[in-house]
Design brief:
The chain is built from three helices and ten strands, in the order H-E-E-E-E-E-E-H-E-E-E-E-H. It has helices at about 5-20, 100-115, 170-185, and strands spanning about 30-35, 40-45, 50-55, 55-60, 70-75, 80-85, 120-125, 130-140, 145-155, 160-165.
């Protein structure tokens, strides 16, 4: 992307940031673009952060409850990305939990809720230095096979909630590596 297009793109994002509001009172701007030169899809949610997704991904639906943005690649692998603030959760409205303490509290809160229907939850990897947990939710519910890998991470005051949904196209190792790449990469 040349400098002029880059400036226009970020001017547009700044305009969205200043003109759109959510119930928390924080102005939020959202952007999404595939860059052929780097072969990455960039998803930005201002002021919370951004994620560079390797390869070309198509933006599909968005959840109005979890604020997850869903993406699909050419192999029909589905992922979700949600970026938000650490004070946007009922267990941390005062913002006292940060870093790995926040991540651990989020895992307990979210995984227990999602596992209510007889699903199994298990931690795959924990990193208290980079402030993330990768975990898996799996099992059968309502005759559906659930097998989702999540990464919950905290950078500054932003929460990264990343997911890879059931797919036979990637191994467990590939799913974990992919999630770590999305979070740990310097965006």
């Amino acid at each position: 992307m040349d400098l002029k297009k880059y400036k226009i793109y970020f001017f547009y994002l700044a305009f969205l940031t200043l003109t759109s509001c959510v119930t928390s009172g924080i102005s939020v701007g959202e952007g999404y673009k595939y860059d052929e030169n780097t072969n990455q899809t960039k998803y930005i949610v201002l002021p919370f952060g951004n994620v560079s997704i390797p390869g070309k991904w198509i933006k599909t639906r968005q959840s109005n409850i979890s604020y997850q943005q869903f993406f699909l690649n050419k192999d029909t692998v589905e992922i979700a990305v949600a970026l938000g603030g650490i004070k946007n959760y009922e267990f941390n409205v005062d913002g006292l939990l940060t870093g790995y303490k926040f991540v651990n509290a989020f895992y307990e809160w979210d995984s227990k809720y999602l596992a209510k229907n007889g699903l199994n939850r298990s931690i795959i990897e924990q990193d208290s230095i980079n402030n993330f947990i990768i975990w898996r939710l799996h099992g059968m519910t309502d005759s559906a096979n659930v097998d989702t890998y999540f990464l919950i991470g905290n950078k500054n005051t932003s929460v990264y909630n990343l997911s890879v949904f059931h797919t036979d196209k990637w191994s467990t190792i590939e799913k974990v590596k992919f999630l770590k790449t999305l979070f740990v990469n310097k965006n």
